[in-house]
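Suppose you are handed only these lines of text.
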Amino acid sequence: MPDKIQRIKGTNDILPGETEKWQALERVIQTVMMRSAYSEIRTPIFEKTELFARGVGEDTDIVSKEMYSFEDKGGTSITLRPELTAPVVRSYIQNNLQQIAPTTKVWYHGPLFRQERPQKGRYRQFYQFGAETIGSPFPETDVETIGLYWEILTELGISDAVVLKINSVGDEASRETYRQVLREFLRPNLGEMSETSQRRFETNPLRILDSKDPGDKAMTDHAPKLVDYLNESSERHYKSVLELLSSLEIPYEQDDRLVRGLDYYTHTAFEFTSDVLGAQDAVCGGGRYDGLIEELGGGKVPAIGWASGTERLLLVMEALEKSQSLTGLDCYLAIPGDEQRPTATTLIREWRRAGLSCDTDLQRRSLKAQMREANRQNARFVVILGESERKNGSVQLKSMETGAQSEMSIAAALKMMLGQA
Ligand code: ATP
Ligand code: MG
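From them, the structure of the protein bound to magnesium ion can be written out as follows.
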């Protein structure tokens, strides 16, 4: 017997039963994006390695150890995309999107690849959906962008279980002042810091605040805060963002350790986390990146965006027992006797054409087995098409929510299921 082939470690099959949840989530994302006038963008799965080296940064975990890179037959170094901001920016520059409108508002959803240690909520192929708003430096743009994610959480009914953490890393001048202050603070203990942090001390001290090493964490606990070194215009920007969030009643917590340690990140940095996730508690990360487009060869164009892990968001839904609500049939048509099957065939087509999701039994099983199947599929209604009812043109309609069952005409049942009765 040949060996069974297994999927690659850290990848997932998204199976029937799960795909329904993904699609329902995608419908919510699409609806919210459409309402806010964001258009979908779809870029290639692979890009030149250089794009990520420059666009994400050599010094990051992603580029230094997580990328799936290979040489193609032409000798070009290629990388399976580990994130989507750099590809979106590449595409924005290459396709001159700034010529179409002064503000480009795009969203995406697709698979990403990172060679990490697989665990719950952390995979080697995973999905992110995200949004980028390119072309406006103003604080209301930050809030428009952050607010988009909030709308998705609200629409899914999980905004209570998720916390927005926010900080400002200021503009380049503010950060330069702070870098000096931070170096002076850390210098006496430099020898005791982790190797990575020692290396970053000169090149990128801000990233030391991001270190997961417990020793580094303890050492930076009482470090001076970046927010205390913002210059006036950076402080004004941050204050406006917070005020606008409050006016929309979007709750936030200021987190002065939250940094995005690369030069092209500016001002607003944020993360959405959820307690229900355990160790991997981040569902979404984002921030303003006013220097990135220039870094990738475009103009001096400000931008802000976020990316959310799709699997992580579905784990939140699961933990809150909300994911069941994403799935389910409108109607299961149960057929007690095989003589009713021809009638059922036309009836179910009519209801499907009316827009209901309907299924029926294709195994010629007992009524009891069919009712079990209706339950398994989380049907809102079961319609029973019995012999006596069929003769007088009526059916039994059972609401699976309330358990109430009554006989009525086929037309009345349809109305009821469409929510028009
Ligand atoms: P972490 O600190 O957890 O590694 P990150 O900084 O690498 O997160 P981002 O690159 O900002 O995360 O990605 C945004 C979101 O994508 C995360 O908040 C998370 O929900 C999701 N995500 C990141 N890496 C993975 C992964 N390997 N598997 C599943 N989801 C992921
Ligand atoms: Mg990571």
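What can we learn from it? The longest helix spans residues 19-35. The domain at 331-417 is CATH 3.40.50.800 (Rossmann fold).
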